[in-house]
Amino acid sequence: MPNTKALKKTDKRPFTVIIEGNIGSGKTTFLNHFKKYDNVCVLAEPVHMWRNCAGHNLLGLMYEDTSRWGFTFQSYVQLTMLQQHMFKTPHPIKLMERSIFSARYCFVEKMFCDGILPAPSASVINEWFKWITTKACPSVDLIVYLRTSPEVVYQRMLKRNREEEKLVSLQYLREIHEMHENWLYHKTMFTCPAPVIVLNADLDKSVIKEEYEKYEPHILNKIA
Ligand code: DGT
To answer: Can you list the domains of the chain with their CATH numbers?
Structure first.
């Protein structure tokens, strides 16, 4: 006779939180803060996979020539994000860095609006996105928006000096900021798949811990 109580416990999907924000907004630092909790599964963004897809650095190619590689990159981002959404964990709380939603609503949308991603390519990504989000149902319970100013994240990006990001301008960060703002703050673009809490992520590393702790109960005390 199977232990139904135990089965139910492990079958239950975790309370899922996606951490969103501009490039350099501190998503990794936020996730690292929660690693100390035994009941939290922390999933970092698969940047290492984007940098090495069977030996190809898709992130680098996308920045070098977005018209040529944008579709390829976004297709792979969508796959790796789906893998993260589908990742099963026995932990009752799951934190994810970014999501299939920000990939579609911020990055793909921007490429399409800029005319960099041609309409037929955008349609293919969108059809996959619609199918995935309706049929595979990547459930999200809460969105943490790490809100920053583009000037602050630009300085952080320069400081961390990631090779592929040498081509990223302040203007690009301003535009990506606007996409996040319209989606998660003003809520004028697309729907939010879950309630949003907004943190001041401009704060310096030395004091940001207090900001995290202020919002910790929203994550730790709510189990789906
Ligand atoms: P953090 O911890 O907030 O500093 O996070 P980052 O900046 O390491 O992580 P993220 O996701 O903002 O960006 C990693 C790199 O990948 C960055 O150069 C932006 C890029 N990226 C992430 N997702 C997408 C996407 O869907 N499309 C495009 N074009 N770029 C993306």
So the answer is: 4-45+88-116+138-220 (3.40.50.300)
Tokens 């996308």 belong to 62
Q: Is the CB of 96 under 6 A from ligand 1?
A: no
Task: Let me know if 97 is a catalytic residue.
Answer: yes
Whether 180 lines ligand 1, by a CB cut-off of 6 Å, is: no
CA 23 to ligand 1 centroid distance, Å: 5
Does the pLDDT at position 214 exceed 90?
Answer: no
> 121-168: per-residue pLDDT in tens?
999 999 999 999 998 877 899 999 999 999 999 999 999 999 999 999
40, β-bridge pairs: 93
Question: With 0-12 CB in 10 A as exposed, 13-18 as middle and 19+ as buried, what is 115?
Answer: exposed
Among residues 97, 151, 165, 210, which one is catalytic? 97
Q: How far is the CA of 120 from the centre of ligand 1 (A)?
A: 24
ipTM: 0.94
Contact 84, 18 (CB under 8 A): no
pLDDT at 3 over 50: no
Which of 91 and 222 is assigned the larger pLDDT?
91
Q: Which strands form 93-97's sheet, in the order they lie side by side? A: 40-43, 93-97, 15-21, 142-147, 196-200
CB 175 near ligand 1, within 6 Å: no
The reported pLDDT for the residue numbered 11 is: 59
Grouping H, G, I as helix, E, B as strand and the rest as coil, residue 18 is: strand
Please indicate whether residue 28, judged by its CB atom, sits closer than 6 Å to ligand 1: yes
